[in-house]
């Protein structure tokens, strides 16, 4: 072991941090709890390596995300620059060299490192060097689906008995989509292993056995589960017996049940599987005795939950051992060929998929890892890449080690040295929440256990948290000291994992201001309320709490200024388990005038406006689809109501709905007109879809229907509008792949929706000062002064555990076998995987809870909802009889649990919860703990009252619930409002925000030739543009030089010309070349600029003035001004309306007491025109510029010039 330098007394590091920075000569695993400064330690370790003259290029630093890699480089750069400033002159060259090497240093994600290896050593595996990376999931998914469909179709055609047996086992309806899902998921699991083929080949072996008692799955998983459940049931009954002293009947019942459990334990220990099943089947629980005396009844009521838990444990054991051993063995034999066929099909897919990628010369992200591992494993006399990288990298540093998988671990082992070990791994297994990416936290756990025994390496624990107040940490410890252990959470939350407060800089504050709070919405309603769902109730509760905090001028500690200050919006974050309620949050927070920024809103494909557009695309592709067609007809695009849709169907009941629409009778004039108009549009779009990209089709739909404008007026309108615009961008990205056309695009979307895959929503608008909303996953690595953890009573999602097949990285594939009579039998691998995955799922949920709680710096709120306060306390009170520190595993392993159920059971045992329980007859283990907290239960009536109060405070009318009689009394008012006509219709046909390009239409500016005057009597001009001549096809078209574009290029050159010296032809030519190289304008446009006219201008009096006073010249100056609409438009009907006009002035000279304005024009004079006519045309425009300058500068514009470059004339206004 190396000698660690002595830590200076003034060092800002703990002893463990100091050790993590300097210890070397063996593998090192740093278990860094939340807020312990792991990134700071990682950066400092790198800096210390560089101080010892190990170059930055000799270090491999692997991060989990590209963002983390960028942050790491930035931190290292800052540290290097500081050291450069402090270094003696003779040593500065070393630090300069490290700064120069930093941009190309290997600080990246593992995928990026793999890409670097493949680009360097592609020839080792005979790869084509010009490969493209499949970065778009769209293309990858479509390619996989296409190949899988071909394989399944070929299998059907082969009429293979093995395949038909495979199909019959999984298909219960007409869709065989489940086959594709199973095989693709199996492919993904296989590819997460270093040797996918070996992993696949091992799958059927789990179904080959003749003796269940010696079967590894039974001895290692099923038997262990039974042992645990029998032991826990025995313990519960023993405690119940001890409490029942004096109740002879009850004691006798419990003793009988204890005897039966002990018999089960005995035969289980002897491995007598037949006897285990028989004893488990025959076990009985007698009727619970009744007692009438108050004292006896009280004791009996306390004992009853313990006995019920024992019964539940035995019942769960029966589900783990559901059939006699001979039936379980027969199920294995029957399932064997089905699993074997699945393996065959996946291998075939794997080969076809690889071949297809090779033909297209593309690689996906998984290929990067497998190819890198293959390259590193090649060893010949000429090539040893493994040795090269081991020699190159003096140390391999891995961030977020808890989130890697076994394939990635294999790559790291190839580039790291073993003697002495040089692998430095840092992470926190309590924050491993990426199982859906096949992260394997057991790698961290296994390594931690070995290193704890000083085997193969050493471990260091960073327990101090420098982020959060001690009150937040104590509350977090209170919860996890009772919840997280090896059984649930996969790590013991004991001394080594317990959080220790290191943030001593926080000032003392009133305990009630900083203690964590539990907010519970009671969703049972006894009176009418504005709140209709539990989500709405929770969101209103949180919005009201935020309003309360702001109204109280709640103080938080600013770590940047080291002072207390008032709470602001940006200090607050709402963490959600899913995105489903994000749009509801936007609407409700608007009611409270609370700005909100959502990082990833509700599922994109589930948004109403996107579903409408996808339905429209479906019927453009194929109108003979009833559901999408009715969806479009009912939507605002067509606007039919339910009665009209019913009429269409009743008129023609024996045909498709599309045919019914086409054949709708003419006598119903109004509806027929609507349908005819829609069919005409649909025909146009169907033609357009055949010859134009999807993005162009969408743009045309938006222009014709104004649907984006419509959704802007709905709640969350800006988000909905952004969603529609993003659909165009996503269509463009789709057609940049190897797939084209509307049908594949629609099919791709359908596949995405079927697989519950989605895209995150675009961010419509982000206010700098706003409350943040994000998922718990998105919050990892972040911290906020005030945290609300939302929707904590959402049940843990265990639906995947009921599928007909289950998979596990280590246990393989488990299936249910369906016999000829469609009876389902669960195989032993399925049972083992189901129990394993249940524990893993609940463990990950517990770790998500840990991540959520440790985001809070100063104040933490947990939010959930129960039917009533009594129901919540009843659920939580199950923990009151517990006698151990850790809650019973069965309480934590319930598949119906929620995060709040877990939290409630830990809080109910604490003295701070006693005021909320009216009658506690008995406690098991009382938790005496430094933590403190407050609970608040709020019903809908209280929320309604508080809502009205806040609305009144904000001077806006509150919502009211009207009775039928009250509604009738105001119906005339509503009718008058609905019939109201705006008195200024012309004002609705223009915007209040006008650019100069709009106003120029009044002056016929030749530089904006395609704009037209606004005619109030003409319908929407967008719908009636006329084309005088058809455009030539691109392959025949010549490059016409447009005057407007040449004018823009001329203006740009004039803007860039230096005024400190007389311009020359050579200087202008250099600027032309720069414009061409930077591709700001096409070459044929730039070369068309008249340089001689520019040189002429600078020889004029005005041009010489610009050169004489360069510091007084202002070019391309933006401006805005208010102007009465009646001054812009003739006969404008609203005398009070104003327009905000904005634009850009070519230039002006500003002197002490006046301004000189000038404007360039590049239009040519015709024979019929003279200078005075041109001046008259632009007079109004120049006056607008002059007015804007005079308002802005508060100086008169004494001279105004119009510079006609082509005519070489300077006109004075």
TrEMBL record:
Matches recorded under SUPFAM superfamilies: P-loop containing nucleoside triphosphate hydrolases (SSF52540), Restriction endonuclease-like (SSF52980)
Q: What are its E.C. numbers?
A: 3.1.-.-, 5.6.2.4
- What are the protein's GO molecular function terms? 3'-5' DNA helicase activity; 3'-5' exonuclease activity; ATP binding; ATP hydrolysis activity; double-stranded DNA binding
> In the UniProt record, what gene is named as encoding this protein?
addA
Could you tell me which residue ranges the UvrD-like helicase C-terminal domain spans?
489-781
A Gene Ontology cellular-component term: cytosol
Instruction: Specify one Pfam family.
Output: UvrD_C
Say which family it is in. Belongs to the helicase family. AddA subfamily.
A Gene Ontology annotation in the biological process aspect, one of them, is: double-strand break repair via homologous recombination
Q: By its UniProt entry, which PANTHER family does this protein fall under? A: ATP-DEPENDENT HELICASE_NUCLEASE SUBUNIT A, UVRD / RECB / PCRA DNA HELICASE FAMILY MEMBER
- Report which superkingdom the organism of origin falls in: Bacteria
Stretches assigned to the UvrD-like helicase ATP-binding domain: 11-469
Amino acids binding ATP: 32-39
Q: Which reaction does it catalyse?
A: Couples ATP hydrolysis with the unwinding of duplex DNA by translocating in the 3'-5' direction; ATP + H2O = ADP + phosphate + H(+)
Give the protein's recorded name. Answer: ATP-dependent helicase/nuclease subunit A
